[in-house]
Prior knowledge:
Strand content of chain A: 25-35%
Shape of chain A: globular
Distance between the termini of chain B: 31 Å
Low-confidence stretches of chain A: none
Order of helices and strands of chain B: HHHEEHEEHEHEHEEEHEEHEHHHHHH
Radius of gyration of chain B: 30 Å
Order of helices and strands of chain A: EEEHEEHEHHHEHEHEE
Number of domains of chain B: 2
Structural class of chain B: alpha+beta
Oligomer: heterodimer
Strand order of the largest sheet of chain A: 6-7-8-3-9-10
Shape of chain B: elongated
Number of domains of chain A: 1
CATH topology of chain A: Rossmann fold
CATH architecture of chain A: 3-Layer(aba) Sandwich
Largest interface: A-B, 29 and 24 residues
Mean pLDDT of chain B: 90
Radius of gyration of chain A: 17 Å
Amino acid sequence: MEPIVRIRGLGKSYWRGNQPVKVLEDITFDIAQGEFLALMGPSGSGKTTLLNLIAGIDRVDSGTVTIGGVDITALSENELTGWRAMNVGFIFQFYNLIPVLTALENVELPLLLTGLSKKERLEHARAVLKLVGLEDRMDHYPGQLSGGQQQRVAIARAVVTDPVILVADEPTGDLDRAAAEDVLTLMENLNGQLGKTIIMVTHDPRAASRAHVLRTLEKGVLT
Amino acid sequence: MFALKLIFKNAFRHKFRTLLTIGSIVIALVAFGLLRTVVSAWYAGVAASSATRLVTRNAVSLAFTLPLAYKDKIRQTDGVTDVSYGSWFGGIYINEKNFFANFAVEPGSYLRLYPEYVIAPEEKEAFLRDRHGAVAGIKLARRFGWKTGDLVTLKGTVFPVNLDFVIRAIYTGRDKNTDESQFFFHWSYLDEAVKKVAPDRAGQVGFFMEGISDPLLAPRVSANIDRMFKNSLAETITETEKSFQLSFISMTEALLDVIQIVSFVVIAIIMAVTANTMSMTVRERTGEYSILKTLGFGGWRIAGLIAGESLVIVMIGCALGIAFTYPAASVFKSQLGAYFPVFNIDRRLFILDAAASALVGLVAAVFPAWKAMKLSIAEGLRRIG
Lengths: 223, 385
């Protein structure tokens, strides 16, 4: 079966003053459709950079990233923005919800970029919030929710557009153990029951153990 | 609708800062409105002047007089339909703080030439009959609580006489620009008093006013009048009433220019205040804008949110500024009405307020929006983490 994510010879450097610092070097690997992949590695190993490149929020220096048959390294900035809206769901360590919007509005936010009517948007958003177990918290603002609940809203926001891949950067990094377990179970369900492809960066071996595939980065090289 | 809701919610996220910014805009727009109105008030005399009235004065300066005998010659000039005359009395009522314009005029012709001073027929009749009678504008009468029949004494400053008057009439202005704070009385009463103490100054007037049949005749009639008195002891300058008023304003033109400049500096200040608020906002929300970009919101949409927020803040300030301009103008008028007898807010000012505010809102958002558009998502996310 054709992999959903195909990475070939990917390289990325950052500039520190006049000195280029290599972050990723000649990364090549595939991710199959429906896979739950955990990326581990010490701080500064390039995990988040790799995740950003796969999600199309940063640009490669060399190599290609093909997702669902689209070489995203060849897309213009505008094309990439549109592509992200339809194909990638993001889950961040600090949830990153918009504080002045309710849970329902936060989930509705990505749907504004689709052609759905207001009614359809709300139906979708309510359905997804129900899926993550927050049907009774829809009108709450992020500040009125616990960390675990906020992360579940963030997950609902990530899946509401039915993206091709879900990328999660330390999704349990800011949660206590019980909330982290809940979030990981939810991600497992999304992967197992809805077939979502998930790429998760984590430091936490317990979180990584929920994934099907574990890849490790060491000084920018995949091992 | 969703975007509008988000814009409003964002605008009031830092309520105290937003309220301070709105407060600054309100104060600035009230100041802008007052300054623009001061400029308009300065030109009120020009705006109220008629195209069919000419003014003749001594060619040397207004401080010099003209013989009353010129009147008949002027009357005979082709195109002149009526002639009146008068003198600036410059009298003081009780003390110098109670300043107002007061003139000695030839009453019949003066009221014919100035139909914009509206007087009840019976009061007009009483004024014309009584040589000690005087007419006061309604604003002046309200200021001092005068009513018809009241006795008023003015101490002479230009002339060495004190005159007692009976208020016989109170006029209202026919037009919005008509000055309703003037005081005028019979020139003959002044002349009679002057004759007793300074006979050499009797029979002299400060200016003549001519009515002409057609505004197009003004240059020719003016030239003809001045030619008549060329090489006489008191040469004349005749000009339209508008030019006459403008010649007063030209003395204070530099001051008016400064007021005009300051009024626009005020707009520049609110632009800086709003730009500062929006810059702080964008800096604080760098992470959020990165998230929006991550979700697929393009740079222009984010710029729209920022510009919208800036406009919401500024336009709320603008609406309040407009609302507060009226009471502020009332206070200003009550305190300085003697110097600005016509102090009316021109409604076009509000269009200017709204246009300037919209411009401020957009310009203030340009740099912050540009920064947000250029923001690298990875960099923005790093700032959150």
